[in-house]
Amino acid sequence: MKIQQTLVLIKPDGLVKSLTGNVITELSDTELTIVGAKVVQVTRELAEEHYQHLKEEKFFNELIKYIMGEYHVKRVLALVYHGENTIKNIRKVVGSTHPEKAEPTTIRGKYGRVTSKGVFENVVHASENEKEAEREIKLWFRPEELAYTIYPTDTKEVKKVEYFWKS
Ligand code: IDP
Ligand code: MG
Description:
The chain is of the alpha+beta class.
């Protein structure tokens, strides 16, 4: 048994279909803990970095448009799950990449579809292995946004501009 963290994204199609509750309920069967959660408007830079390993694929441009919300809404819900064997446990509930090949009882099997353009609208992302999980969590979250982190952190002083509500 290994303590791991994993990144889950509820993709724009999942948000447009109001599947947040369903997805979180399905994932709660894994008895893992959510240690981070936020809504993110995905920039092209973030999308391309996240999917850098697929840059050479012919579906890359469509994939970037999809995750940026061009076909649905311009946001995703990013979650970090923590617990024993998180990566494998979550991937099992999520199901295979191709929604039509995914087991019908999995999230992707239940709620995913393939569009006429060939985009796999598969509702959620989940990290594939420990290396990817670490890379992705560090890409999407700052350490202070997580209730608990398994990766070492450092501090440094930075000058920054903060936004406040107008009074
Ligand atoms: P994963 O999400 O199951 O880890 P990856 O191979 O990492 O699968 O692909 C990332 C995402 O790219 C998929 O979730 C899916 O949205 C999209 N994708 C993967 N393969 C294809 C394909 O053959 N056609 C269209 N989209 C694809
Ligand atoms: Mg992947």
